[in-house]
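Standup notes
- HV: blocked on the assembly model, inputs below
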Amino acid sequence: MEFKLLANDPGSKARAGELHTAHGVVPTPIFMPVGTLGGVKAVHMRELREDVKASIILGNTYHLYLRPGTEVIEHAGGLHKFNGWSGPILTDSGGFQVHSLNEIRKITEEGVKFQSHIDGSRHLFTPENVVDIQRSIGADIIMAFDECTPWPCELKYATDSMHRTHRWLDRCLHRFNATDPKYGHEQALFPIVQGSTFPELRKASAEYVAAKHTHGNAIGGLSVGEPEEEMYAMAGLCCDILPKDRPRYLMGVGTPWNLLENMAVGIDMFDCVMPTRNGRNGMLFTREGVVQIKNKVWADDHSPLDPNGTSFVDSAYSKAFVRHLFVTNEILGLQIASLHNLAFYVSLMTEARQHILEGTFSSWKARMLPKLKNRITG
Amino acid sequence: MEFKLLANDPGSKARAGELHTAHGVVPTPIFMPVGTLGGVKAVHMRELREDVKASIILGNTYHLYLRPGTEVIEHAGGLHKFNGWSGPILTDSGGFQVHSLNEIRKITEEGVKFQSHIDGSRHLFTPENVVDIQRSIGADIIMAFDECTPWPCELKYATDSMHRTHRWLDRCLHRFNATDPKYGHEQALFPIVQGSTFPELRKASAEYVAAKHTHGNAIGGLSVGEPEEEMYAMAGLCCDILPKDRPRYLMGVGTPWNLLENMAVGIDMFDCVMPTRNGRNGMLFTREGVVQIKNKVWADDHSPLDPNGTSFVDSAYSKAFVRHLFVTNEILGLQIASLHNLAFYVSLMTEARQHILEGTFSSWKARMLPKLKNRITG
């Protein structure tokens, strides 16, 4: 796996690059649609490729481990064969999900014991078996097993948790280096910086992670409730320490403006369920602002869904028709909103990248931010 | 509106033709996907056109009248503009739906008083206002307002109901002839033959309808619980009376084998929610038989969804992946099954039509029927 850094924005720390994987080249900055269970909710793989123009998608280790299970995925020949997505895939480690199971999980030095949210069955995730599962899934990028601390978080807990995450990282890397890919293509492991919103912890964690010289690095534990300014500050602090010649992935972030602000401090990769989840609730992100398509104001508005949109749904359907589909609980409404939002996110990254390459990112971002945050009410 | 009869099958009463409408040519026999609320459930308009290869779709007067309402549709410039489907549209009259409201509707000579299934509000459908609503919707083919009798049905009730349906037809035609299309394109009104499963009534009703010399004719009140052989017998009896030079539409039918059997007695047009509704329950129709994709037997079957399928989903996804999507309640599973089934229905019509044109329909049908009815269990 190779990362080519192509440009640094003169007015910020934004970068443009290319991540070369066994399943294709990923231009950065990039947004990765989330395919929790292997498929991106309400969007065909063909649409992801041709309309959203996604170049990499996510899968979720916790969910895929429970259903369909690693055995079925192995029989298919890996997740690429199972879900029919032939481009690059990144899998999260399941850390975030199992820690979210609050009442039905227990963290020890060994790993995390948890109960399935589906049938209550008992399972154990360890740094070692989480690497093994991701080997079976066949992801191009494997994430280390970490603890995503809640926010706010006591300094003592955040410190102890960070050190455990570091020890788990060493065990992940040990297992990773002792095992081979199962399907003949290269896999890379990205460690995850933790440390809550404590600058000293973030600094220590980023230094610990940087010293591992992995193909790429991630920042976790942000966008969990802290103020946006703190998120940007923590991400920037980590970026200043993480190697310049490797991609930096900020996990689970965020709104369109969050993406631009985090790019400006040096982030290259993003994922978030927001475009699909909020889309299914009728929230549309556009370059002129946020639209709640269920609102009555759109009931008789027969203009195109998004005149500035890049995907076919933006001109094929009107605001009034999509509002009607939401009001009548038609699945097609969820499909349209999900596809629109993902295409918007990816096209915003493409546009940002072009501005970085041309050295005009900062002024463009300054113009875009107030528009993106605008609430369009008719 | 013009119907060109191109071929009669030598071994049956099957016909191949072309129905010319203001929004395009419909090859017959044809299957019309149902877009109850304006959109076909879980299928994009682009997919309907390019993948399903639908040449005409249905809208539902009852549902569209309640939501979004005729005013919004008029402001859009008709349903074609509202839903973005630029091909031909047929609207049912709402008769079937309001009669299905059993407890919350009352039939009188004037029409049907009913309560909305959404908010309980009170409404009245009459032959006149149902024509007006369909003028506002702008359907290429408008259906007469009728009573769809339940099955079984007393002779007395079926007789009285049929005569009322005939009187309503006269009122529909009177209103239709006294009004103009609203959007500049031609609309045609199809009357509906009723009479339950009483041959004398069906004969009387078909003769009544035939005498109106409309652009096309429909047969209603079948596929409501009667044995399949009775359905075919009644459809055949009506076809023998209805004009040869006009298309014959059998409403709300049915399974793939129902379609072939009814073609053989002279039916040209079909619609049914079965491919989409059953698809959403995991039932896939294929040329080798019926598959219940949720069954455990498919959990580890990584072969293409349907190796004989004509749509992209058939090769893009495996049985195991689609089964996984259904088991995990992913919307994408509903999308895949709906698109597959509709594409299969339409392609089966295309193949049947080719055999009618070549004079080989009957032997082909005899070979196909046992395969279509087969239950594939792995």
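- HV (later): unblocked. Chain A is about 45% helix and 20% strand. The two ends of chain A are 47 Å apart (CA to CA).
- Next: hand off to the docking folks.
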